[in-house]
Amino acid sequence: MALAAAARAESGILVLGRISDDPQRHYDQLKPLLDYVVPRMADVGIREGRILMAPDASRMTSYLRHGRVDWVTETAGSGLLLIDRAGALPVLFTERDGVRYYRSVLFVRHDSAVQGLRDLRGRRLALQRPASTSAYLLPAITLLDHGVPMEILPSPADRPRSGSVGYVFANSEANIATWVLKGVVDAGAFSEVDLEQLRARDPRAEALRVVGRSPQAPRAMELVRPDLDARVRRRLTEVLAAAAEDPEAAPALRRFFDTTAFLRPEPADLAALAVLADAARRTREAIE
What we know:
By secondary structure, the protein is an alpha/beta fold.
């Protein structure tokens, strides 16, 4: 065990981590749940909770390897990176707004000539950002699995080679949809949940036509460092898994990204996650 982790273990500190580009907002979302968890872990020596943010997956990988973080909450894409690079252990799948698994959808404007994923060769695709699971990683996996190479474009005004799809980053789901509707790009991608919500609040989104769907992925995951004391890991898992049934946890769960349950993964879930991890690894090697 790293010296930092050993020192914290002796003092009874549990550190919750997250990759964040907005630490203050995420701190406010994480702190209520950490405050709920810590008193319920006194029987395994936990007396205090702390939060440690990282600006990217590389920094969080270092924190995990050196024992500076014990528990990490992340989306599937970032979680898979931490599993691959730091040996992080996925102990729970996180259900948000009642959604445990979700898919990405790739879509075009209703009047587009594109009928399927292979028709995207030579066209432009708007994605959100490289850290996004549903608006980057899952669409990329899907395109490469269908034999469609990808290349990054300097701007939406540029064109890809005829055999590949060129992608640009639009920074938000709203921008992705707008760019497709206005013809700035030929296609976009984000989660089926986001598309459903967009259609519910904006009638213009009915003009978006789905041409492909990704494999499913967990909505989010709770992970721990691989050398976390087994007693602490088990107790943390027990407390979180029971939280959805405890009225005292309800406010903290709402703040915690609208979490509705923490669910123990079954063997089939972990097997599917391993397949997704392999696909993610191959995809990143191909396009990054």
